Amino acid sequence: MIKPFFAGAGATLGTLALHGRAAAREAAFEAAFPPEGRILDVGGVPVHAVVRGTGPDLVMIHGASGNARDFTFDLMGRLAGRYRCIAFDRPGLGYTGHTYARYGARFGSAAETPAEQAALLAAAYARVGRGAPLVLGHSFGGTIALAWGLDHAARGLVLLGAASNIWEGGLGPLYALNASAPGGALAVPLLTATVSEARLRRITAAIFAPDPIPEGYFAHVGAQLTLRRDSLRTNARQVNGLKPHIAEMERRYATLDLPIEIVHGTADTIVPADIHAKVLIDMLPHGRLTLLDGVGHMPHHAAPAPVIAAIDRLRDA
Question: Lower Cβ count inside 10 Å, N or C end of the chain?
Fold first, then answer.
């Protein structure tokens, strides 16, 4: 009986040490990348909102593994002289909480649907905004922008490298593992405790490819915040479970009676234009597609001028 006892005690101590290391890193990440805006109380859910500029309201919704700092790095500064920019952290990411407590469970696999995310952010917007806004979404944030347009008031949508349509196959074993109940409880803390900054930089470079990471972007964006245990689980669960929600949304795209600007890079391998933008444009009654030759998944950084032109067209529509 002695050996099993010590083996069990050793495993327990190892687990405690792992979680201790993860918690210490999370505290360091949050100290290095604190909220840049206000924390709104939206029906008991904290929602982080960064509001800058003057002019028509422009809501900005970030993609997977991201936070509002993706917009405060550069695009918001380019627009703040002509728009009142409102960038939100999506549920479970950055400094925004979960729409329901069950989505934050260690052992679980459920996550906020696009409709639930849009509803929370629209309610947050009602706290700080005026009238129907322009809504811009990048990547997964483009999915949420479409959900916003389907269910809530908007003047128009700007979709940047947006995940809008059904794709073949899955998203790889890591997403599947982290999204699962055992993976979320057991594998995710190991990643939080061990993933290096060098690895995060390589991941960021792959997201931008073939475009370079802008100078100073990595130091600003706080990719480390996504390494927190709850954020890792949330991101994996939201992305891994997205496809059935996209299927439901596709059936409603023809009802989107508002102007929609789609800006998509032809070299985007993360959300390929052939599967998403080029399919979506034929499903919209009032859509306009701008393809950026040779641009990857981050058009608002690699080619800000056509992105701003698309926003301006919506403002003037």
Answer: N
Delimit the domains of the chain by residue range. 2-316
Note the pTM of the prediction, 2 decimals.
0.94
Asked if 168 and 270 touch (Cβ cutoff 8 Å), the reply is no
CATH 3.40.50.300 fits 2-316, yes or no: no
Say if strands 45-52 and 38-42 run parallel, antiparallel, or are unpaired. Answer: antiparallel
Judged by phi (left if over 0) then psi (alpha if -120 to 50, else beta), residue 225 lies in alpha
Interatomic CA distance for residues 309 and 317, integer angstroms: 12
Mutual angle of helices 229-240 and 242-250, in 10-degree steps: 40
- What count of other Cβ atoms lies within 10 Å of the Cβ of residue 198? 8
- pLDDT, block means (10 residues), the chain with 317 residues: 43 70 96 98 98 98 97 98 98 97 90 98 97 98 98 98 92 80 86 95 97 98 97 95 97 98 98 98 98 98 98 95
- Asked whether the beta carbons of 226 and 232 are under 8 A apart, the reply is yes
Residues in a beta bridge with 135: 59, 157
